[in-house]
Write a structure and sequence with these properties.
Distance between the termini: 26 Å
Number of strands: 13
Mean pLDDT: 89
Structural class: mainly beta
Order of helices and strands: EEEEEEEEHEEEEE
Number of helices: 1
Radius of gyration: 16 Å
Strand content: 35-45%
Shape: globular
Strand order of the largest sheet: 2-3-6-5-4-13
Low-confidence stretches: none
Length: about 180
């Protein structure tokens, strides 16, 4: 990820020091914080891909909300079919370690097994691996589908992460 994105500035490696008690979305605490250049809403990665974002900060630690959480919406796109959508999770799938991509047109051409990456926003840089399409479910409205995504990284088992403290476009509102 670092070699392909020279505009990224990274934190020092971070260790997961605690799991947030009672968090079914696998939130955790890392051993780096504000004194390490980490700021609120910085994206969090492993060498495999996106894990979540920093949602609480202290001088020497940070709390991370994972991409499984219903509190985190992530704009995404599929690599092959270029189907756009938003990860908006629900607890049922999150407990299985899966994400739900919504707002995908039924004629999008999305396929099982396709890679899903970030589409780019003020919080998440473009093109970061998220996961693969595991299932496509027709929505009740008949106009769209919900896409079940298996993240590339099992957030329940992650022990080491990095925080991107700066990237081109960070904090900018998208028109």
């Amino acid at each position: 990820i670092a070699s392909e994105n020279t505009d990224y500035q990274w934190s020092a490696p971070c260790k997961v020091t605690a799991r947030n008690a009672g968090d079914v979305f696998a939130g955790f605490t890392i051993n780096r914080g504000g004194q390490d250049g980490i700021e609120l809403y910085d994206p969090v990665f492993t060498s495999t891909g996106l894990i979540g974002l920093v949602t609480e900060i202290a001088p020497f630690y940070s709390k991370v909300t994972t991409l499984l959480s219903t509190d985190v919406d992530i704009g995404v796109v599929t690599a092959e079919s270029k189907a756009l959508g938003v990860i908006e999770n629900d607890i049922e799938y999150a407990e299985q370690g899966l994400c739900v991509m919504s707002y995908v047109g039924k004629d999008s051409g999305i396929k099982k097994g396709e890679a899903v990456v970030t589409s780019g926003s003020a919080f998440f840089p473009e093109g970061i691996l998220v996961g693969t399409v595991e299932e496509i479910i027709n929505d009740e409205n008949g106009l769209s589908v919900h896409v079940i995504i298996r993240p590339f990284e099992n957030v329940f088992d992650v022990t080491d992460v990095f925080v991107v403290t700066q990237f081109d476009g960070q904090g900018e509102l998208v028109d």
